[in-house]
Structures are given as C-alpha cells and as structure tokens.
C-alpha cells in the first residue's frame, strides 16, 4: 500500500472517473464488511449496511460526505433495522480501527466529533433512502436445494458470491432472487456441476425458472469484481474469500458459530481499563491511609 493511503482511500492513479468512484465505493464496502466482522454482527446486518451505503450514494456525490462517517452510520443504523443493535461507541471504535489501523480513545475530542457526525449522518440516511431491504440469502438456500438438496459446497460457494456481490451495485439494479440465481450459476460453473431433472440432463435456468440472459448479465457484473480484485478467493470456494473469512460472513454453520479473535481495539481498551483500576486502587489506598492518620491525630 502506498504511503499515506488507507483501505478507505485506494490508489486510483490512471483510472477513469467511473473506475475511481467504483474503487472508492468498493473500499468502503470492504470496511463495512471488516468492521461488521470485528463487531461480530450477523451477515444480514452487514449486507443491510452495504445496501444503505449504495442507496445513499446512488443519489448523492461521494465527495460531499465523509465516507468513513457514512460507513459508521450505515452499520449503526443497520444494526437497529435488523434488530441487533450496537452502541454507537462500539461501531465508531471498531470502524475507525479497521479503516485507520489505530486505536481511537472513547474519551477523546476526536471520538466526540465522530459520534456527533455519525448521529447526523444516520438522520440523513433515514430521510433519504428506503430502509426496507430484501436480501438474496433468503432465496439462495431454497434455490440451491432445488438443484441439489445435499450439496453443501454449492450453497457455501454461492453464499460467498453473494457476499462479494455487495461490493458491486447489483443490489441497486436487480431483484434479490435474481442475484441469488446468478451466485448459484457461478457456483455451478466453478464446481463443474452436472444438473439433472427427473433423471434427465437439465440446465440451471430450467430448474430455478429464471431467464438465462438476466442471470448471465448479473453474473458478468459480479465477475468484473475479480478482474480488479484478483485476490478475492471466493472463486475457489475454499472458505478463504472475502465472504468467508470469519464466522460473521460465513454461511451459518449447523454446529454453531466460529469464535472470532478479540478485536485489537478491545484489547487496548482492556489494558487501559486495567491500568485505571490499578491506579484507582492505589489512590484509594493512599486516601484510606491518610484518613487513618487524621483520626489518630484527633
């Protein structure tokens, strides 16, 4: 990464204006996904936050708003909408650490400014976009089971493709069921899966009853993501892609959730807390000793 840049400000040298915008939006969605993982939010909350971000900037210029603050506001609002509320403090600290790789202290003036801006941007979201979101995940499992009711790899890889599709704008332009169908189509291609229907060879489009042209159109837009970000490993389906890096973005496991490591900003705050407690004990001890001496003198 170039000096002075963060994940929120990717290199855009030599790109067209449209490509620059796409890269900046993508970087923001990556921050939403990683911060959501730090906060151990369910994938539905992360997907809702990403959708809110896309919706807002579909009708508002990127340069008119602080993108980091908007990322925080989207996560904060999405956690409320999906009924998994997180404190503004936790959202701000986690997102700031993910984006800037430095600990923000909750008692600092900078934190107070972030909190004020996040509340203001949350109001902007509520007044400017629809908060009703229907995600492809709701359709994906039933579609995959229609193709093969026992193949878990098919569902998992499709789930990863849906996660990665959040970094594109397909959620703005296509029905969520169609996005689920496109993710399933890409998974079938990756696995070299042979589809049958009533014992006879069949196409995916026949089984899920969706138009081939639209499925291929959405699939093409998702695949464009990997041309500019070849490190995404969802194509391999090995669980190492952007959509399968931790338990929060992984398809829910039947045997329980994965345990994520303790976020670094929590460790830092815990160390500060222990230090403050130790100092407090020391001060209380000195105070008690002074009170005893005063009583003895009396």
UniProtKB/TrEMBL annotation:
Coiled coil spans: none
Cited Pfam families: Cyclin_C, Cyclin_N
Presence of keyword Chloroplast: no
Compositional bias segments (type: Basic and acidic residues): 281-291
Segments for region (Disordered): 234-261, 278-298
Keyword Hydrolase tagged: no
GO biological process: regulation of transcription by RNA polymerase II
A molecular function GO annotation: cyclin-dependent protein serine/threonine kinase regulator activity
InterPro entries in alphabetical order: Cyclin-like_dom, Cyclin-like_sf, Cyclin/Ssn8, Cyclin_C-dom, Cyclin_N
Keywords: Cyclin
Cyclin-like domain sequence ranges: 30-127, 138-224
Protein family membership: Belongs to the cyclin family.
Record-given protein name: Cyclin, Nterminal domain containing protein
The organism of origin for this protein: Acanthamoeba castellanii (strain ATCC 30010 / Neff)
Upper taxonomic lineage: Eukaryota, Amoebozoa, Discosea, Longamoebia, Centramoebida
